[in-house]
Amino acid sequence: MIPLLISAFVLGIFFDNVYHDLPTTCLHNVAIARTGYYYDVLIPSVSLCHPTDAVRANFGHEPFRYPIGRIMRDSSRKTQWPRSPKPQSLPSEVISTILKFAALAPRKEGIAWAALVCRYWYRRCLPYLFKSIALRSKSDMDILYALVTQRPRTHILGPSITDLDHHLALEETHSEVWAYGVAVSLANRLPHLLRLEQRRDYSYWELIQSRTPPRISTSLPALYSAYKAVTTFSLTRYHFRSFAAFTQLVSALPVLETLKCKDVTWNDRPDNPRLLRAPLSRIEVYGAAAKSRRMIQLFTIGWGSWKPTPKYPVLGCYESKLIKGLVDMEDLSKNQQGSSIYSCNIHFATFVDKWHFTIEGSGNIGMESTWDLALSPRVTHDSLTRACLTNLSISRPCIFRNHLDEQYWAKRVDTMFSKTPLFLEDVTITWKERRATETTLQEREVETSKLRSLFPRLQQTGKLQFIFERKK
């Protein structure tokens, strides 16, 4: 067993005057020839301490003894044993690739062993050892706090842990509530923490909330503002008092760009739209379909509620109704096999002259669909510049042709365009088919005619077009 580096201590190298009359057949000692006089003997002693006392660095209880006289005689000889050539070192990029692969192990045993070889390897392995840190209890948090706060006593430690980029994962159970302590004591001491992940035991969310100190539960957004560099925040099996409480926690992270949620829920309460803000560029959601759709409001509900910025443009009247219909649109997977499992990726990108709002959704039966809304600044009838919908692209697999669910989906989409946005230029619906052979031109014309009959309002605008893609 290889002990941890923090439990290894080098005791030192010392000299001793030893009479050479010692046994010469003991395996634990180096044989010493009888010379008849005193001389200095070099005794290097290295000991590794371990809680289980399983390591015997000297293969016994007595240190090795090396007579300096013999070492000096051997080194002064003219004829030496032939020395093997020094092996060539591996390129730095090869070493980095090996270390990245070794760091994939859950407990990182291999890379921990490599770090014990020498100072050079420890410095090379340190970034991979602490690239991702998982804390599963308050004692783990205390150990990390001790490692971060203590000053290295020797230069062997190399770079500090606080100088590395981190991925910190917190796994909290109902028996012990401690994750808020990381925000209190460690957030300011990890300036390069880029990814933060928190997981809870969802079955006991009420017990977890009851064990959280009241002063902490009401000040969580203020505590999370200490994560100055976190750009990706992941929540798993979390329950909040309200949707507003969830958005306040998210918006507290100053430079957050991506939010990942799995099985995140909240109590249904009336919300103040002005409180629902979050400076995000991407949201990835997995869980209940209704909760997934409401995540869209982190982007859209505040549009027009305050002074417009490039991040949050003011929507036109028709665009607001269109996006509201998109938020309220039922998920097909909810009607399939009685399941409402749904995953959704929401992305908002800002360009020089337009904004792209993309929603990628997929149900548990493979019903994948993508909505891409292109918004451009236009002067409306009230002489104000607003973000107006100019292009809409919908990509969807055509699996249930002429099925009731397919007709229901088409009817909901067409209803959203009961009033066509003024600046809409085109609507493109791409159907992805799974066929072994290509369809003929005549077959496509027949299919297009059937599809157009499902969208009477869009058909009247003359801006609807269909594209067929064959998926292998």
Could you explain how this protein is built, in words?
The protein is α/β, with parallel strands linked by helices. The chain has four domains: 71 residues, no CATH class; 38 residues, no CATH class; 151 residues, no CATH class; 162 residues, no CATH class. Helices cover 29% and strands 25% of the residues. The protein has 16 helices and 17 strands. The strands form three sheets. Strands 4-5-6-7-9-11-12-13-14-15-16-17 form a twelve-stranded mixed β-sheet. A hairpin with a 4-residue loop joins strand 13 and strand 14. Helix 3 packs antiparallel against helix 4. The longest helix has 13 residues. The radius of gyration is 33 Å and the shape is extended. The chain starts with 11 loop residues before the first strand and ends with a strand. The N terminus is likely disordered.
